[in-house]
Every structure is written in structure tokens, then in C-alpha cells.
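Model: You mentioned two targets. I'll fold them one after the other.
Researcher: Yes, keep them separate.
Model: Target one:
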Amino acid sequence: MEDRSICLFYLKIGACRHGEKCARKHIRPQELKTVLLANLYPNPKTDRNSDISDSNESFEHFYTDVYKRLAQAGEIDSMLVCENENFHLSGNVYVKYTSTVSAQQAVMLINQEWFAGKPVYCELLPVQSFHDAKCRSHDTNTCNRGDHCNFMHIKKLNSEVGRRLRLAQDKSIAIKRLRKLFDDETWGEGYLEPSKEKYSRNKKPKVAKEAENVVEEDKNGEKEEEKVEGAEKTSETAETESKEEEEELEEVSTTEAVARLFS
């Protein structure tokens, strides 16, 4: 049976509409991996002073900026942004890390910073699964409570943007591990810089081109060697034939030679 003295909204969502005045207990487990940045996203629906327009491009810039900063504290498992209109959920950014150490590090770092001219409030949450905190009806546009629902209405992010951020994080983590392995903090600096070349699926990588050039040079070298060997063989053959011809010639007198012609 569920303990009615515990606030289930705070346990599942990490945010309660009653706040600190809630009559039920807001329990915080010792090991927490989820971090809340309350009202960080300047939701254009509720914030009239928001500098962010209600467009996908503006949201992607916001999401990317925040994700990169939070990833500096540790490996991010997932990150969500609420677009609810009620104050205790509006603009909330939820970040789940892969370790409790990373989550604690994020709280210490982010609580000292400002965003969009306002101080950032960051705290650890008991949320274990975003699946239980999300409003499933919102995903199918069938939520009867609208944007004042007390479950998370997650603002949708372009899947390609999310994929690129995860790949960039994986790359950064791999380089950090290699630096630790090689005991060299400067190793792989060139790999962290973004490439200025546009990606093309049909374009062959430089390494492959260089390999092809080497193969062609080897082939050309082999052909030249074959030509030289052929020329040497030809000269050797000519010399051999001339020698054979010389050997075939007999030393005979003029009289004998004339006699053979008329014989």
C-alpha cells in the first residue's frame, strides 16, 4: 500500500504545486542522479519578456546551449524541458546523469551561474524514471487538462539535434578516457575541434584517397620495374642471339665458301 503521508507528485515529478507548504512529506533519497533547473527555459507561452520565440530553431539553440554546459559536469543520460503553463512546472529543465557524483557536481557548478539575466536554481531530485513523470496523453495531443496539467508536458526536440549532442558527448568522454590512459591532458585536441568540411556520403575520406594514391604509385612502380626488366631481358636475349649467331658462323676459306654456294 502507498504511504499517504508522502507526496507522490514530488516523488515522481520532483515538483509539487503546493511547494514547501505541501501537507505531505517531500522525501529526498541519499543517492540522487536527477537534477532540476527550475523555470530555466523562458517559455514564450507564459513569459512575456522571453527573448526566445516559440519556434523549433530557438528551442534547439536553448537546448544545445544548456546541454553542453551541463555535460561538463558528467555524462548525461537524458534531458527534458517542460512546456507546462503552471508555475511549478513551466520551463523546468530535468537532467538525469549516469552517476550521483556527476549530479552533485552539476548542482555545485550551475548554482553559481546566471542565465538570461536571472540566477539559476539547481537542486537534486528523487525522480527515478521520466516515464512515470510524463503525461502520456500530451504525447498524443489528448490531454484534457491542457498545459495546466500536473504531469510533465515535454517540449519536443528534433531527433537529429538530440542524436548529434549524444554523439558529441560520447566523443568527449572517449577522449577524456584516452587522455587518462596516456597520461596526457593535451592528447586529441585536434579531434575536439569541429570540422569545417561539409559531410558528403559519397565523398571518400582523405585516408582512403591517400591509400589509393599509394596503391597507384606502387602499381606504376611495378610497371616501370617490369619495363626495365623487359628491356633488360630484351637486351640479354639480343646478346644471346648474337652470340649464338656468332657461334653458328664457321671459319672457312673463301674457296670453301664459294664451293658451298654452288653446291
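Model: Target two:
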Amino acid sequence: MKFAKPAAALLSLGLILQPAMAAKLSSKEKARVARAEPRDRDDVRYCLLERKKGSKKGTIIGAAGGAGVGLVAGGNLGETALAAGVGALAGNQIGGGSATDKTCDRVLDRNK
């Protein structure tokens, strides 16, 4: 259980620093916004940023959940780290897919 306190401290620090690291669009995403119809550009940018924020939040929550399961199950450091990694990967995929609503999905499908 010596690992629980440092892990909780790192998780807390990550949640505190998350708002400080603002999401930015990559060059491919900026090009996608530029290619979009003029009436949809703001919506495409907003939807891409929301998807990116959802992925980041899902990664953090998944890693924390995986580490928690690893600790509760009595795993050693390696097993707990593996569970955290698997949780982060799953959380990233789930968070990115569920971060937008139907309107964003339609806008992004219309402007590929």
C-alpha cells in the first residue's frame, strides 16, 4: 500500500493541471476547419475541440480507474501500472467517442 499515496498525489496533480493545458488543434484539424463550408467552420472547430477534451478527460479517468482496480485487487507495481495503461486506453476511446452530440456528429460528417 506504499504505492497508494503517491498514486493519489499524482492523480490529484493531474486533475489540477488539466485545465492549465488548453486543447489546441493540430495542423490536420486546422486544415479540416479551413476546408469546411464557411457557415460550418465555427461548429467544426468547436466539435473537434470538444472531442479532444473528451478524450483527455476519458484518459485521466480511465487511468485512475485502472490503477484503482489494480490496487484493490492487490496487484504489485507492474500489474497496477498495466491496469492503469489499459484503463487509460479504454478511457481515451470512450471519452473521444462520447464527447460530442448528434449535432456535432452531423457537422463533422458533413465536413470531412
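Researcher: Noted. Anything on target two?
Model: The chain has a mean pLDDT of 83.
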